[in-house]
Amino acid sequence: MSDRFVVTADRTRCMGSGICGAVAPEIFALRDQRVSVLVEEPDDPAIALEASQICPALAITVRERE
């Protein structure tokens, strides 16, 4: 991923819908079939941003690195 962005999945907010994994399986996966985890930092933040926008629990964030 670009050094400019950080992607996080808040496991306490995740409700396990799996939508993020359906949109970006190379980035997100369900652990124990209930909590999304970041599998790999994406090269392009656009797909992670798309997953964050459709997450029903708003558990995914994409932000610029400080």
Write a brief caption for the model.
The protein has 66 residues and is an alpha+beta fold. Helix content is 23%, strand content 27%.
Please provide a written account of the structure:
With about 70 residues, this protein is an alpha+beta fold. About 25% of the residues lie in helices and about 25% in strands. It has helices spanning about 20-25, 45-55, and strands at about 5-10, 30, 35-40, 60-65. A hairpin with a 3-residue loop joins strand 2 (about 30) and strand 3. The longest helix is centred in the C-terminal third of the chain and has 10 residues, at about 45-55. The two termini are about 15 Å apart. The model has no long low-confidence stretch (mean pLDDT about 85).
Strand order of the largest sheet: 1-4
DSSP E strands, number: 4
Any idea what the shape is?
globular
Helix content: 10-25%
Order of helices and strands: EHEEHE
Radius of gyration, in Å, reads 11 Å
Largest sheet: 2 strands, antiparallel
Number of helices: 2
Mean pLDDT across the residues is: 86
Q: Which class best fits the helix and strand makeup?
A: alpha+beta
Distance between the termini: 15 Å
Low confidence ranges: none
In what range is the share of β-strand residues? 25-35%
